[in-house]
Known about the structure:
Layout: H1 4-17, E1 21-22, H2 47-51, E2 60-68, E3 70-71, E4 74-75, E5 89-98, H3 103-117, E6 125-130, H4 134-144, E7 151-154, H5 156-159, E8 160-162, E9 167-178, E10 203-216, E11 222-235, H6 236-244, H7 253-266, H8 274-295, H9 304-322, H10 330-341, H11 347-350, H12 352-386, H13 394-402
Parallel strand pairs: 1-2, 6-7
Antiparallel strand pairs: 2-5, 3-4, 5-11, 6-9, 8-9, 9-10, 10-11
Helix pairs in contact: 3-4, 7-8, 7-10, 8-9, 8-10, 8-12, 9-12, 10-12
Amino acid sequence: MTTGNEIRKSFLDYFARQGHTVVKSSSLVPEKDPTLLFTNAGMVQFKNVFLGVERCPYARATSSQKCLRISGKHNDLEAVGRDTYHHTFFEMLGNWSFGDYYKEEAIAWAWELLTREWGLPKEQLWATVFQTDEDAEKLWRKVSGFPAERVLRFGEKDNFWEMGETGPCGPCSEIHIDRGAGACDRKGKKGHRCRVNGDCARFIELWNLVFIQYNRGEDRELAELPAKHVDTGMGLERIAAVLQGALSNYDVDFMRDLIAAAERLAGKKYGASAITDVSFRVIADHARAVSFLIADGVTPGNEGRGYVLRRLLRRAARHGRMIGLKGPFLHRVAVAVVEIMSGAFPELGGEQQRISETIRGEEERFGETLEKGLALLEEATAELKRRKKKILSGEVAFRLYDT
Length: 403
């Protein structure tokens, strides 16, 4: 089991054997939920089930959900590219119980999959629980044999999960892996200490098991749900990096294939420069995001989802210029997205032509806008030199901003 496709299949097959129904990923555009701009977690399609207002034909489910985190509470956009682990688009592997099993089975199955099925070393794993969750701590020590110091307690910031400002929520238990002292990216920083839920890359969260038992209302108060549920989430990119022994999320097979597509177009190599590496990561990430958004019916615009799509397209185009790609190029990277991911998400293949045409059209319009802006800037700076001044007028600054 080495590829992302194999890891995804292994996860879904494992939970199917535990009596879970394999459910298709829902759209990035949430249905019947005005509180969300995009689907940002696997549980979004089950929100009304957790609230008790809809019934589900199955008590257990598993899926690989396409997610986008670029708005509201979950907004990773500005970090994408600057580091090697943030994404706007990602896949969330998950399993759910709708009033069926609870903490005992969720913890036992997570441990079995990670250690017995996937062979992760037990001595590298750590568990965290909510500060008052005695049951989860006892269960972890039972199934793993961990001493007390390997099951850590944290407060609401780290171990109480909420989908948004309102909605289903509850205490959670996370599984972290220690990648060794060599993985620390803050060596030599004054006062730094590697630790679980710290600020370096040595300890990383693999899997979040959420025990949903509350609903948070508009008044921020918690109310017990009619039944207790389980909602788990594990990023495919992150677990693939661990299982493949990759240096980062962007070094796993399916991300490196996208970076390779950009390398061929630019005639430059990923890893040659920290500056160009940022641009390669942005292009790979955003190519996935825009391809899936367009496949799910979003079109570029000036507000809402359309504005987010346009912003992603233009950010990728700008980074393309930084590595020497002057004309439209992202639509060609999107071809690689479709080739790599349409097996798991066939909607990409069905919308390939629209994806390509939409991206290319937006790239061309952005190129025209940039040319106008650059011409205006050159004209304004020439005028400043002629008049022996150094500060642009407010009118010119506004025109540049508007362009």
